Amino acid sequence: MTLDAALAATATLVASAFAVSTLERWLVRRRPYELAWTISLVMFALASAALWLAEAKGWTSATFRTFYLFGAILDVPWLALGTIYLLAGRAGRSTAADGIRWALVILSGFAAGVMVTAPLRAVVPTSELPEGRALFEPLPRILAAVGSGVAALVVVGGALWSAWRLWRDDPSEHPGAAEVSPRRLAFGNVVIAIGTLVLSGSGALAGRLGKDTAFALSLVAGVSVLFCGFLIATPPRPDRMRAFNAERFAPAPDAVSM
């Protein structure tokens, strides 16, 4: 296995573990930002798996379309939706966030249709990461620019603003404040913003490491930093999950009496 394939495999495994953690918390607490994060991380894992397969077997049209759809177009917007839900807080603003969610669902379906049907302008190179501008017409590239650029600004700006607000305001005004201290939430939000910036930093590394290694390394580092931010900003384990496990694994009454 090459270094690039090993890095992509690591990113896939970290993203999968991250997705399981957010899914567990959503199943217990039903908070919409945790569901948005779970969807984003599943997409991240799919994009990383496509990169892993391509580095091991060579790029094909299918692996590049999968990587481009879930990695360049859809992943960050769903992560941004989680940030929007965190910032919404109150019921009225949460309703507005619900509207953004349904718009994103429609956009995701549209983007999937575009990526399945978009014609290729050239043969996909098998030995190195292809470039969207060399293979696709403007529409897929516009979707990627919006998904990677605008949504990243929402994540970074929202995380930093949320951190500043949590640092200075009344803790009771913010969701999750009863479970995690406001300063810990603020620090977790800053770490999430840093992770998003790391994910977008592959271009700065490409000149020194090569495109494939830069992308794979930024995926591993970025998702690892995001995972750390998530662990900092959320309780170690939901109370209801602890109660569920205590009830599930408690000894039977007869066993106790013996």
Structure in words:
This protein has 258 residues and is an all-alpha fold. Helix content is 81%, strand content 0%. The longest helix is centred in the middle third of the chain and has 31 residues, at 138-168.
Q: Give the SSE string.
A: HHHHHHHHHHH
Largest sheet: none
Write the CATH fold name. Answer: Rhopdopsin 7-helix transmembrane proteins
CATH class call: Mainly Alpha
Tally of discrete structural domains: 1
Low-confidence stretches: 174-178, 203-209, 238-258
Query: What is the total tally of β strands?
Result: 0
Average residue-wise pLDDT: 77
Q: Please indicate the percent range of residues in DSSP E strands (runs of 2 or more).
A: under 5%
Distance between the termini: 55 Å
Task: Work out the helix count.
Answer: 11
The chain-level structural class is mainly alpha
What kind of oligomer do you see?
A: single chain
Shape: globular
The radius of gyration is 20 Å
- How much helicity do the residues have? over 70%
How does CATH name the architecture? Up-down Bundle
Quickly describe the structure:
The chain is mostly helical.
Question: Can you lay out the helices and strands and say which pair or pack?
Answer:
Layout: H1 3-29, H2 32-57, H3 61-88, H4 91-117, H5 132-135, H6 138-168, H7 182-199, H8 202-209, H9 211-233, H10 239-249, H11 253-257
Helix pairs in contact: 1-2, 1-9, 2-3, 3-4, 3-6, 6-7, 7-9, 8-9
